[in-house]
Amino acid sequence: MRLYDTKARSVVEIVPVRPGQLSIYACGPTVYRDAHVGNMRSFLLPDLICRVAQSQGLTTHLVQNITDVGHMADDTGLGGVDEGQADTEDRILAQAGLEGRGALELARGYEARFHEDLAALNIRPAQAYPRASESIPLMIDLIQVLLDRGHAYVGSDGSVFFDATSVADYGALSGNRLEDLRPGHRFTAEMDSAKRFHADWALWKHAGDSRTQLVWETPWGRGYPGWHTECSAMSLDQFGSSIDVHTGGIDLRFPHHEDERAQSNAASAGSVAGGSAEVVQHWVHGEHLLFAGRKMSKSTGNVVLVRDLVDRGLDPLSLRLAFLQHRYRQQFNLTWEVLQTADGQLRRWRERVAEWAEAPSAPIPADLQAAFELPCQEDLDTPRALQLLREAERIEDLADGAKFEFFAWADQILGLDLVRDVGKAPQPVPESVQRLMEERAQARLDKLWARSDELRDAMAELGWQVRDTPEGQQVTPTR
Ligand code: AMP
Ligand code: ZN
Q1: pTM of the model
Q2: Does domain 2-286 have CATH number 3.40.50.620?
Q3: Fewer Cβ atoms within 10 A, N terminus or C terminus of the chain?
């Protein structure tokens, strides 16, 4: 498989360090609210990588963290203003305050909903979901190693900072060179004065007495972890000093991943005989999702959740199909119309697959299989793969049984439940709809096209979609 590697700035071949097993670390949700459909796009990326790798005979080991402490409102440069919170507030604590709940109670509630959303989109579970709040000892060990190796220091406020200048190639991932980073960049004046250099960042933050939740005793006093510390500590713990692929949304490239890379490399360099100092072999980022032309943001009310789709009667997998219709590296503007169309397409495919399933099974032509695999393996070109499904549907001399096998096989990568309707007894067509069909057949014979369209709309209102085929009208339920 080939993927676009952010650091190499090109599409490269992914060769697992441990032969036959691909290790993937995916940055997970900050569980202070429901994940929106933009977040879900980023969470689909590791699922697709796993499915394609598995189709090539690799086993996959996916770990996705749960951030339930330490993600400040200013950490991505999006949150503070966007969410209407003070820049230095922990997102979990701020929301817990607003909802009048305990911080961990809030976090566990949204974590459970995150898993429901993954399931609704057929995103297969990871092998592990380590929680930041339960990984504090790992972080303390990591910080100690960084202190011992001279990559970190205790600042004048008792926080522990990473010394950005101690890493020769800081900036290799994002292209942000140290000399270009200006003081004041996303840091409060208070923090700035505690550290030696403006681009240093806190591995561990000193807590004042007012913080009563999500706070831990350490050799450096009472405090809580920096967001980037979490992902280094958890990924190194899960995978040792080598991870094949690390994913996240494009906004995480800097500072989250740049800083995580610096920490992980600094902590592991020389720890494995002959090992590479580059812990993460490939950083892979997904582009952002827009909705109706605007970025997803709580404050402007432009947030769509998976459950909003369900409330509108849409299959949540229509979202998955809409995502697959665009390359993960393209910005993509989602609209309700796009979702409606995807929903219709899904239903149509499922019906056809159910029809083909009645025919005797036939082998998938090897060239068709290869033609589908190729784009999947070439930087997840899912739009092209979907196009092949449409083409296969239309190949006249391809047996129905082979079409069925092809769609069922392709769905192992696509994850659209295309075989869902197979074996389902067709719903009897109600008399009211049958009468409309007869009337419509007559209208078409009389070439009364406007009347024919009216009757089509009347059927749609009753929940039936009509298609005109060479054999006449065919109706299928839409609900
Ligand atoms: P968070 O829960 O804020 O920590 O974000 C979880 C993931 O969603 C991260 O990988 C972000 O990069 C990603 N993300 C945030 N907003 C969007 C968006 N509009 N489109 C795609 N991914 C996003
Ligand atoms: Zn992360």
Answers
A1: 0.87
A2: yes
A3: C
